[in-house]
Amino acid sequence: MDEFTETTVQRHAPIEAREVKPRGPLDWMATNLGRILIALFVPIVTFLVLYWGFQFLRASQAPKGVIAIVAIVWGVGGVALLYVVANWLVEQLGDAWRSRLQPFVFVGPAIAILFWYLAFPTVRTFYLSLLDRNAQNFVGLANYQAVFTDRNMFIAFRNNVLLWIPFGALFTVVFGLLVAVLADRSRYERLAKSLIFMPMAISMVGAGVIWNMIYAVNPNIGMLNAIYTSLTGNQPVAWKAASEIAPWNNLFLIVVMIWLQTGFAMTIFSAAIKGIPTELMEAGRVDGANEVQIFFRIMLPYIRGTVITVTTTVIIFTLKIFDVVQVMTGGQFGTQVIATQFYRELFTNQNSGYGSAIAIVLLIAVLPVMVYNLKQFSEREAF
358 near 338, Cβ under 8 Å? Predict the structure, then answer.
């Protein structure tokens, strides 16, 4: 067989019969180097163009409304363009690299945002908690020692752990579950649930202002004192600041949170209750169970996952409660909580080290409840 015939046979031979030479790293690099450089260069150029566009808008003298509209269009369109360009470039690298890199095109920005706005600030806050009030000298764990020995912090821990969680979280869950069960059997279910849920439309600050007027000492303004003085003939009481009822004056603040969050608990419980099979409850009634027994032996076990999820969510909320206390008392009269103490030390007293230590302690207090919540979420269908 001459050289021409041999070459022709090899060219037209089946793919399986051809001799495949293994490609080394240098061969792969030579083939894909250009694609890799383009994959890195084009997104960087796109990002820089977006950045320069925002800088131009910032320096522009156009009306603010026009700048806002252009910024929204530019930002949303730019982010979409980044995704499209990055995805197209990854697809040019072949199947092996596409399967490896494509998930990062979509998940990468979210991970970067989480790191920049959550992980990095947490690490920085912990670092600041090891420094003095001016963040200049290293003091080690002195700030944490102060957190657990300061009388004001002791009162804050007491209020959060012994008052806000037992009374606030417990009554929010109980009232939400009670309303969900009773309203489910009422002809006026929608109206009742709408009224209970309505406070959720009010911000925490707005709710604090409303209840400040209800608790006002002047009976002409404060509804509670108007009722109290007309029924008893006694002098008005400063419900939020009366020393004779401390620390129970915290309960008047906790009422505001219960008023706000009961609608949230009711909505979740109502959805869970409607998911209980009707045949299950009818079977209980046929077996002679009354409504109380059906609630405790059928309904409650069936929605146990939802109850745990709502309870842990409300506990996290009560641990980091801030708005209501700050608006209604400013953390005075023995009503301070962990979050208000953090605010006072960091922003009022300008003590960055001590304030950061309080923030880290609050984070550590919330983490176990949050981890338990996520664990329950993954183990069962809670909703």
Answer: yes
Quote the distance between the C-alpha of residue 35 and its chain's center.
Answer: 40
Instruction: Say which residue, 275 or 97, is predicted with more confidence.
Output: 275
Residue 358 has which token pair?
């309080």
Q: How high is the pLDDT of residue 17? A: 45
User: Across residues 93-113, what is the average pLDDT?
Assistant: 70
Query: Do 242 and 249 contact (CB within 8 A), yes or no?
Result: yes
- Spell out the CATH class of 143-379: mainly alpha
Q: What is residue 178's predicted lDDT score, i.e. its pLDDT?
A: 92
Kindly tell me if the per-residue pLDDT of 243 is higher than 90.
no
Q: Is 248 helix (H, G, I), strand (E, B) or coil?
A: coil
pTM more than 0.70: yes
Q: What is the DSSP letter of 13?
A: S
DSSP 8-state class, residue 17: G
Q: What are phi and psi of 287, to 5 degrees?
A: -75, 0
In DSSP terms, 138 is beta-bridged to: 131
Q: Residue 270 belongs to what H/E stretch?
A: helix 250-274
- Amino acid identity of residue 247, one-letter, is P
Rounded-to-integer distance, Cα 198 and Cα 195, Å: 5
Q: Among the listed ranges 66-70, 186-190, 225-229, which one has the minimum average pLDDT value?
A: 66-70
Tell me, what's the pLDDT at 123? 93
CB 357 within 8 A of CB 146: yes
The position carrying tokens 């939802």 is: 306
Burial 324-356 (b: 16+ CB within 10 A, else e): bbbbbbebebbbbbbbbbbbbbbeeeebbbbbb
Write out the two tokens for 288: 């002679």
For the chain, give every residue range classified as CATH 1.10.3720.10: 143-379
